[in-house]
Each structure stands twice: as structure tokens, then as C-alpha cells.
Specification:
By secondary structure, the chain is mostly helical. The chain is 58% helix and 0% strand. The two termini are 31 Å apart.
């Protein structure tokens, strides 16, 4: 279940799932954002700013 305030803040994408170029673009965009987020979390964990952060293997 998604909290109501999160639902209201979410961006609603109008994606044509049959358009391969559009799907690839969005996949690449989300991967890039995830990699940046992961880097930020790991950097903060190294600095001691994130409790219980996952460790790299």
C-alpha cells in the first residue's frame, strides 16, 4: 500500500508501452538515476551518514 502523500507527489507518466524507443529511453533514464542514488547512498555510508546501509561485496 502506498501512502496517500506519496501517491499525490508521484509523477504520472504517459508511456506508450508499444513504442520501443520510448521504453528504452525510460529504462536508461531510470537505470542512470538508480546508479546515481546508489553512489550517493554508498558515499554517505562511508562518511557514517546512513545507518544500516548495505555494504558492497
Amino acid at each position: 500500500m502506498v501512502p496517500e502523500e506519496l501517491k499525490n507527489s508521484m509523477v504520472h507518466w504517459d508511456v506508450d508501452e508499444t513504442d520501443e524507443k520510448q521504453r528504452k529511453y525510460l529504462d536508461d533514464l531510470f537505470k542512470m538515476q538508480f546508479q546515481q542514488w546508489k553512489f550517493d547512498v554508498q558515499r554517505d555510508a562511508e562518511r557514517g551518514g546512513v545507518p544500516n546501509a548495505p555494504k558492497e561485496d
